[in-house]
Amino acid sequence: MSTPPELFRLLDVEKAYDVGRKGGLFASGPRRRLAALDGVRLSLKAGESVAIVGESGSGKTTLLRVLLGLTSPTDGRALYREKDITLLQGDDRDRFCREVAMIYQDARGSLNPRMSILDLVAEPLDHHGLCKPSERRDRVAALLSRVGLPPEMMERYTSALSGGQVRRVAIARALASAPAVLVADEAVSGLDVSTQAQLLKLLRDLQREMGVSMLFITHDLGVAAYLCERIAVMYLGRIVETGLTKDVLSAPAHPYTRALLNAAPKFFEPIAEPLGGEIPSPIDLPPGCRFAGRCPEARDDCRARDPELVAGAPNRAFACLHPLIGEPAFA
Amino acid sequence: MADVALSSPPRAAHSRGAMAWAYVRGHVWFVIAAVVVGAYVFAAAFAPFVAPFAPTEQDMMSFMAPPAWGAHLLGTDSFGQDLLSRTIYGARYALLIGLGAVAIGAGGGLVIGLAAGLIGGRVEWALMRLVDSLLALPSLIMAIAFISILGQGVDKVVLAVGVALIGPFSRTVRGDVLQVKAQPFVEAARLMGVGTLAIVWRHIIPNVIFPLAVQATIRVSYAILVSSGLSFIGIGVTPPTPDWGLMIAEGRSFVSFAPWIAGVPGAALAVLLIALSVVGDGVREQFDPKLRKEG
Ligand SMILES: Nc1ncnc2c1ncn2[C@@H]1O[C@H](COP(=O)(O)OP(=O)(O)OP(=O)(O)O)[C@@H](O)[C@H]1O
Ligand code: SF4
Ligand SMILES: [Mg+2]
Fold it and tell me: Domain extents for chain A?
């Protein structure tokens, strides 16, 4: 049996949270649901890297939790190597745990403060039985040097490390089990520019040398462009545009993507007008396109019809009735 | 400005002695307090060799003798017993009761707090209502209640004070468990496929044991204080045991003309309590990674 090219596949994944009745605890209205993810389709092939971008609250973290099997979708399916992630068992589950590694935004919080760097980086090795006890130190030293940390660090604790060093430790630990996919939620945000640049370079080198896939959540389009060949733009629980990063960012098809691009700070340019209007509440969504309230291109039909994500160009899909490039080919 | 930028941090000390000296200089009060506590422990352990007299030996020639150079350095009490010797033996009881009670309180608190925090649901609810009932009364009143059930004696005091301490220990352990459980590193371990028991053992327990140990060192002095209180009001350790609380109570009636009878054990108690709390703070600073200084 040949391994399928796709590592992850999300098939119309919906994740809705019950948020109680309108009017509070004792109200008698209908139960309300908040769709953090609403029909998300996404795939990640071996060796490929995808950036997920979108404003706060668009569902990026929820998407990642579904991918990691930390929450189960309320509808649709989330597959890893063609198997339901939440139903993985036995060898499949071991394989998933070994092949999918997470890099947290809160790198310090993701590392047990009572464990030495040696034990932290060796934990995946120990857990998956990947090396003999006699090789443990050498393996950890090699991993540390791969992320640019000296072997003397092994005896230290994270409390004695800087923010940048802690992220490197987290990356070394994620690499320990030789994963097929690195999943990262804002892995380089909150750092100074030069540290961020070093880490991005490190991640890109790792990607090229080890052929590891990446799923990178970021709000920084520059980071997305640097690290990921594909991009998926999320808005209110949906992917509204996806394609090759260079295509999407150079010629956005969805007005929301263009708005994100305009809002992104550019050097030597005055800060652009922020996105007008408010993000509607994901609880009471208006009918039609969910971006209509803020969209400068909105026309009458936008408030009546909810556009689906459809292929609009080679390697490209967007959910807009009046895209900024070409016209979507409705199926 | 220039010298601020140029001054490098003090060179790390190289020899072992120099390193120790650097540590002492950085933690003067902690070291002094630790030496004081060490002296009490030594005196307690080797009381028969350190004390000039047996604790209950009466000197018929000297009752209520004031401290003076001679046979009774710190004077004698109304029974003619040597106060220095009694105070040294008293350290035994104080430390024994303090450590024993805290061991019971911390052990019980660890079990209850872990069970409540890890299992949750009805078990947690029931355990925490139990703890609430233990916490409804101040520890001293609680200990009095237990003594009235158990009867008097050193072992009963240890048990009574220990049980009275289970409440506060349980509560902090549970709080710590809940807090640690929500940490990303626990989720990270789960993602790695680490099983629940291993997560509890490797990631949760070490992170609640250290704050517990810190709390325990701080509560030793509290346990000693409560047990002395019990003896002082006459329901703890029975006479003629050389218990400080008991000695203070005995000396109380003579305080106007023989203040040393209550004063000597009182001072011994006060110095130990202060030293223990300074040591407790130092231990907290050592073990809390957020408070620990570099180097
Ligand atoms: N457990 C939950 N219960 C109820 N609502 C939730 C829950 N988790 C997330 N949500 C909601 O789902 C939506 C998407 O949240 P999510 O955390 O995925 O956004 P995000 O894109 O990661 O945002 P950010 O950039 O701020 O991290 C938000 O409206 C959030 O309030
Ligand atoms: S469908 Fe209409 S409202 Fe929605 S993004 Fe496209 S143009 Fe704007
Ligand atoms: Mg998020």
Answer: 6-20+32-318
Name every residue whose Cβ is closer than 8 Å to that of residue A194 and which is 6 or more positions away in sequence. Answer: none
Give how many domains chain B has, as a whole number: 1
Gap between the Cα atoms of A216 and A206, Å rounded: 14
Ligand 2 in contact with A240 (CB < 6 A)?
no
DSSP-derived letter for residue A252 is -
Residue whose pair of structure tokens reads 């209205």 in the numeric block: A29
Residue with tokens 């690499």: A175
pLDDT digits (tens, 9 = 90+) for A70-96: 999 999 999 999 999 999 988 999 999
DSSP lists the bridge partners of residue A239 as: A234
Handedness of CA A143, A108, A229, A64 (dihedral sign): positive
Comparing alpha-carbon positions, the chain A residue that sits nearest to B191 is A97
pTM: 0.80
* Distance of residue A122 Cα from the nearest chain B Cα, in angstroms: 12
C-alpha torsion sign, points B149, B152, B153, B154? positive
- Helix, strand, or coil here: A212? coil
Q: Which two tokens stand for residue A55?
A: 């404003």
Q: Tell me which of A71, A100, A112 to substitute to probe the interface with B (most B C-beta atoms closer than 10 Å).
A: A112
**Whole-angstrom Cα distance, residue B125 to residue B137?**
20
The nearest CA of chain A is from the CA of B293 a distance in Å of 9
Fold that domain A6-20+32-318 belongs to in CATH: Rossmann fold (3.40.50)
The CATH number for B136's domain is: 1.10.3720.10
Interchain proximity A110–B185, CB inside 8 Å: yes
Contact A167, A202 (CB under 8 A): no
Q: Which two structure tokens, joined as six digits, stand for A233? A: 């733009």
Q: Tell me the CA end-to-end span of chain B in Å, nearest whole number.
A: 25
Helix, coil or strand: residue B291: coil
Mutation pick for ligand 2 pocket among A257, A291, A300 (CB with most ligand atoms within 8 Å): A291
Q: Ligand 2 pocket: which of A321, A324, A327 to mutate (most atoms <8 Å of CB)? A: A321
- At B145 the pLDDT is 87
Nearest to B105 by CA among B173, B20, B150, B169: B169
Domain interval for residue B214: 15-53+76-294
What does DSSP assign to residue A155?
G
Listed in sequence order, the residues at least 6 apart from B143 whose beta carbon sits closer than 8 Å to its beta carbon are: B157, B160, B161, B164, B226, B227, B230
Question: Angle of helix B244-252 relative to helix B205-232, nearest 10 degrees?
Answer: 30
Q: Beta-carbon neighbour count of residue B183 at 10 Å? A: 19
Task: Kindly state the greatest CA–CA separation across chain B.
Answer: 78
List, for chain B, all residue ranges whose pLDDT scores fall below the cut of 50: 1-13, 293-295
Q: How far is it, in rounded angstroms, from Cα A217 to Cα A54?
A: 9
> Nearest chain B Cα to A90, which residue?
B193
Q: What is the DSSP string of A168-196?
A: HHHHHHHHTT--SEEEEESTTTTS-HHHH
The pLDDT value recorded for residue A2 is 54
Q: By CB neighbour count within 10 A (0-12 exposed, 13-18 middle, 19+ buried), where does A2 fall?
A: exposed
Averaged pLDDT, A122-134: 91
pLDDT given at position A277: 67
**Is B213 at the interface with chain A, CB within 8 A?**
no
Report which of B15, B31, B13 is spatially closest to residue B286, judged by C-alpha positions.
B31
